Amino acid sequence: MIQIRRAISDDAEFIAETYRPYVEDHWASFELTPPSAETIRSRMAAAGDQYPWLIAEDTTPLAYAYASAHRTRAAYQTSVDTAIYCATSAQGKGVGKALYSTLLEVLTAQNYVMAFGGIAMPNDASIALH
Questions:
Q1: Selection from 50, 39, 37 nearest residue 10 by Cα
Q2: Range 98-108 average pLDDT
Q3: Residue 52 CB coordination number (10 Å)
Q4: 66: which of 25, 53, 111, 113 fits an S-S bond (Cβ 3.0–4.6 Å)?
Q5: What pLDDT does 120 receive?
Q6: Any bridge partners for residue 3, and if so which?
Q7: Phi and psi angles of residue 6, each rounded to the nearest 5 degrees, phi first
């Protein structure tokens, strides 16, 4: 059974390792170098409670999702960007959909009204999810 919870600092290793192939093998992340677990911890800490990071897990973590600031102008204060990354073993099993649904519920409860997800093409899995 999939459980979804807030990510904690101890999840940074899983997040970094899950994210690594998306950076190294694809361009969907828009990063050139995979961030370390320590960099992930810093990003999570900077997000604080304002921008949630979530983990989907059964007995072990399977996927993560997070929100971040959309733009810096004041009128965008109720908007966020979203991202989601699944471990290879979790792809195509509904984990991403469940995690994304929960992320959007949390963001709605936080009074965000717009959530933007960018897709670098081609990316059939992301298109299907969104």
A1: 37
A2: 97
A3: 21
A4: 53
A5: 86
A6: 57
A7: -65, 140
